[in-house]
Amino acid sequence: MLKKPELFQNGYHLSFFTLSPEIRQFVEEENWIKVDEIFKDLTLPSGELYQFLQTFHHFKVVEFIISVRDANNQWEEDGIWHDDGSRFFAFSLSLTINSETIEGGSLGIRRKGEVIFSQLMTPSFGGIILFLTGCYEFEHKIHKVRKGKRVIIAGWCS
Questions:
Q1: What is the DSSP letter of 126?
Q2: What is the C-alpha to C-alpha distance for residues 138 and 80, in angstroms, rounded to an integer?
Q3: What is the pTM of this model?
Q4: From CA 145, how far away is CA 76, in angstroms rounded?
Q5: How many helices (DSSP H) and strands (DSSP E) are in the chain?
């Protein structure tokens, strides 16, 4: 159940989640194993990220991936519109150290069946985009990173 529907009129809400200097260091070192370990703890029911997300929507489980999109990757391309299936709620938590150097990589969000969409640029480190999924008739996609490296914790709540 969505707890603050007034914040999600366009299908998303921008917020901030405080990240430790330790996480920043591991991201700078590209130590994805350590980043993954930290987020496994943060997304447990006793974890700070889990508790933060619970203020917006009721759920039982958080799933996440570390998403690194790099303009230097020859396979980098636009994603496709999708709705995350039966997941209630999703988020994109920025681990991008210098978002000002990114071109592209925006998150598009729209109501299903519509052509017009909101285009959200990659937030600074700790910026979080909370957004609605197919359960609320919204879908999203990531646009191609044309310059720089975009690092995100992409997550879903069910």
A1: T
A2: 13
A3: 0.96
A4: 7
A5: 3, 10
